[in-house]
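User: Please predict the structure of the protein below. I'd like the answer in structure-token form so I can feed it into my own downstream comparison script.

Assistant: Understood. Taking the following sequence of 198 residues as input:
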Amino acid sequence: MKILLAEDQSMVRGALAALLSLEAGFDVVQACDGDHALRLLKTETFDLLLTDIEMPGRSGIELASWIQQQQLPVRTILITTFGRAGYIRRAVDAGVSGFLLKDDPSEQLIHAIHAVMAGKRIINTDLALTALGESDPLNDKERRALRLAAEGKSTADIATLLCLSEGTVRNYLSESISKLNATNRVDAARIARHKGWL
């Protein structure tokens, strides 16, 4: 089984890779962030993507969405520190097969990988119940603009990165602020991140 492991924290990535290498038949390729993982997905064939959610570049959920859009036969398991409702809902919509917390026991990860590869979906029951909470009011374009704003990018920078006009970016950010009842773009990003919508 060829596994793409995408995790931006070197120590965590190394520990996960070491754990997976103990399992017979697992071939692990490491990616240091979401953009690196996407480049590997475009050039190599994998059976499973094991990825963090929040990483520089593309998020784990964005990677799962890309796999789904390309109709690749790659299963995805997200591992994260946060069990936020917004993440879980977006992950399920993106076709993710497994959702685990980083503080889950290590044997649970191996079990989840085998279960997911057998066609099952593995999501912690408590996390699944959490996902029944509030729905995400942001659309993908608003989310991408708000994420870049949260990174400190100017409206002009965001417009360049998303290939949009500055006016369109201002509209997306304004809509985000309004939908989240925030006072400004920083407050909107804080609220969205806390809810798991960013």
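That's the full token string. The longest helix spans residues 166-179.
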